[in-house]
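During the second year of the project, the team shifted from modelling isolated chains to modelling whole assemblies. The rationale, set out in the original proposal, was that interfaces cannot be judged from single-chain predictions alone. As a representative example for this report, we include one of the complexes processed in the last quarter. Its constituent sequences, exactly as entered into the pipeline, are reproduced here:
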Amino acid sequence: MPESVVIRPASQKPVAPKVGSQKLGRALLWLALVLGAALMMFPFLWTVITSITPQGNLSGGPSLIVRDPTLDAYRELFDAIPLWRIILNSFGVAIVSIGLQMVTGSMAAYAFSRLAFKGKGIVFGCYLATLMIPLQVLVAPLFMMMTRLGLNDTYFALLAPNIASAFGVFLLKQAVDAVPRELDEAARIDGAGHLRIWARVVMPLVKPSLAALTVFAFMESWNSFLWPLVVIRSPELMTLPLGLSYLQGQFTTAWNVVMAGSVVSILPIVVVYLFAQRHIIAGMAHTGLK
Amino acid sequence: MSSLTLELSADRLAVRRRRRWRNAGWVLLFLAPSALPLLVFKLAPMVASAWVSLHRWNMIGSMSWAGLDNYRDLLTSANTWQVFGHTLLYVVGYLPLVYGGGLLIAVALNQKLKARGFLRASYFVPVVTSWVAVALVWQWLLNPSRGLVNHLLGLLHLPQPGWWTDPAWAIPSVILASAWKDLGFVMVILLAGLQAIPQEIQEAATVDGAPRWRRFWNITFPLLTPATFFVIVISLINGFQVFDQVYTMTGGGPSGASQVVVGRIYDLTFRYGQAGAASALSWLLFIVILLVTMVQNLGQRKWVNHA
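Output from the structure prediction step:
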């Protein structure tokens, strides 16, 4: 390909001025993108600023300079709701559901990719069908089921819909399909069974997709609102979105407290995202968008 | 090498045929951990809700058979059409905004630029943030008397709408916040699509001297149609299920002006205790989503490029 670029002696002169205008265009584009990024980040900046503004200064209209910054709002926040407990709940539920989805998802992916069985296509179709069911359709019957089983207002109820994810199975199957079968064969000759091949050969090789699944599962669990809203009553079982929504109802004028709560809920997920950023696009590309 | 592989796989097939019963055990072992939860927590409730939709039930007493009454009542109620109308208005406003914006940013951020990683991250941060937190921030930004947006509009001597406190502006407020939040998601999908386009194709077009916008319209965009299709399908499915942002930003108000289908399902279930009607409305919504998705699937053959 590069050769075809080189063989263009005649067109070199008229191109020269264009390069200059292109450079300018690029700089302008970059500037626009930075402005756009600032627009995306601005609400967060403002959240932080508001959270350290003293209660009395809130009505003075928006300002980017805080007079007498204070952490009072955070103190009030921790007094108003059992925040440590709520943070711990959110983390606990997220981590357990990520772990479960990784194990259940990669096992299913292994079966769909490596084991031959009758009706595989139909079973896989059923998995994909569960992706199409909106959560809202399930909320009422799931709630009734949990009530029958006496499991309402428990951690298990919070976790139940996220034990396995068809999206995870789909994502991981694409990755397992890409693992060369020769590697399984080599392990088989060494006397490894399916469980060992799954754990020792396949799992380590689909790490990028597992990382992508981690981010998606974390997002889903961390931000999940409707289901916890329905199934959780006790404050000590609340997750962060519920806690925030509760704050919103309690502190209708004390915005600094509500914003302090937002900061606490946003920070962890931004950190998780920054660590796994490059895997997200790679993981997306793996789902068959090519 | 390849003949060895072939022999090996032929050998393996023979072994597999002999040990089919053992294989079934493995299939069960590997599938059960995911199949059981999906069956119990996804498929079973779905079937159950279809059954409930044919009954009158307050979730406490016993169910009484209602046949298709719930569906008939819903379809003849003005409220149902209203909430579907609001939802449709939301989808129609949201989709072009989020796709257009996402495409623009994806194309721009697919080039080699300074601090590209940081810029991509900035656009994606709202995606990973909880709706409750985002809604709080936007509720405040769009606060009619104290919000920043109206403050700026006031400085420019422009009209200051009542945003989420004004019935006419409630849904546009939700659209604005939603498009802002989901822009990064669309960007990532389109970026993945753009990166799958072979460089040689772009280079060849550059050599031909085609202008930038023609290169985009005739080469990049057609190759991006699978990703575009994915974005539209996902956005429409999510759009029809809009709930979190409405519940946290406007609560469906003022006076029901921004109530959407899922909000109504939530109210029917947990405020009025009409589980039968709520299940029926859930199914109506599901059918609408299914139809929309099917129409797109049929339509895609006309415009999606399968290389």
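Chain B has 14 helices and two strands. Residues 20-52 of chain B form the longest helix (33 residues).
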